Amino acid sequence: MRDVSDQVRYYGLHANPVVTPELNMPAQTAEQTDRELLRKDCWANARHAYGTSFIFQRRARRLRRSLHLVSYAGIALPLSSAA
Questions:
Q1: Which of 22, 27, 44, 53 is the most exposed, fewest CB within 10 Å of its CB?
Q2: Structural domain tally of the chain?
Q3: Domain range spanning residue 35?
Q4: What is the distance, to the nearest Å, from the Cα of residue 21 to the centroid of all Cα atoms in its chain?
């Protein structure tokens, strides 16, 4: 969950520059801070999407093996009983 100050900056309600004297960084405008928050959100969503794809790839691999086994049994069993 975001801090309230992050939400204020993210939704553009904070129009004054954000001063960060503790980091000795130049002051950023609210627009630059919004971009940074948006970039962080995008990267977080990208990691979630990668994790989801990994889970579904494992599931697809397992189902593919089962499908190959059923296909083999569908061919091998009738041929072995016919012989």
A1: 22
A2: 1
A3: 4-82
A4: 33
Structure tokens at 44: 């977080």
For residue 64, what pLDDT band results from cuts at 50, 70 and 90? very high
Is the pLDDT at 41 greater than 80? The verdict is: yes
* CA–CA separation, 71 and 67 (whole Å): 6
| pTM for the structure as a whole | 0.46
Of 43, 33, 39, the C-alpha closest to 6 is: 33
- Summarize pLDDT for 1-29 with one digit per residue, the tens: 445 455 445 445 444 545 455 555 556 67
Rounded CA-CA distance 81/60 in Å is: 31
Question: Longest Cα pair distance anywhere in the chain, in angstroms?
Answer: 85
